Amino acid sequence: MTRSPKAGFSLIETLVAVAIAGIAFFVLTETFFNVLLTLEGLESENDTQKDVRFVRSQVIQLASRDELLDGGEISTLDLGVATWEADLEATSVLDLFALDLSIRFENPEGDPFEYEERLFLLRPTWAEDGFDRSELRADIQRELESRDRRRDW
Fold it and tell me: How far is CA 94 from CA 2, 89, 126, 139, 144, in A?
């Protein structure tokens, strides 16, 4: 089938081109709005969240168990001085500790703000003095061996 030199696009070709352009426009618009929403979310992170994250990062970096249990104060950028306290308890998992962290911010622009959370930290160096790991490891080894014997290969 030959076309005459004055023939244009057929209706189907035009509809396909408009549909492809519409889909491309929709995808680009959605991407643009998703980027805008993400940027807005990053900018709207309030001062409290930033300061809590800062204090938390400083506390969990402490290497000494005694220093952690003593608590302390940290100056923050937005909410003034943060006073923190920590309670620590061993879990049933070897070297895993549950840390209950309480933070109190002075908040010079309003009422003091308190924040609490529970974190789980893996700290092999925090085991109690005189704690014998070899017995616990032997128990775990025996449990693994008994599971292997019961397994149907």
Answer: 81, 12, 11, 12, 15
Place of tokens 């309030």: 46
pTM of this prediction exceeds 0.90? no
**Scanning the structure block, which residue is given the tokens 């930033």?**
50
3-state secondary structure of 99: strand
Helix (H, G, I), strand (E, B) or coil at 115: strand
Which tokens in the block code for residue 96? 């895993």
Question: Average pLDDT of 37-42?
Answer: 78
Q: State the virtual CA torsion across 127, 88, 98, 61 in degrees, nearest 10.
A: -80
CB atoms within 10 A of CB 18: 10
DSSP assignment of 46-92 equals -HHHHHHHHHHHHHHT---HHHHHH-EEEE-SSS-EEEEEEEEEE-S
**pLDDT tens, residue by residue, 68-102:** 889 999 998 878 889 999 998 888 787 888 999 99
Q: Taking Cα atoms as reference points, which of 81, 70, 71, 75 lies closest to residue 113?
A: 81
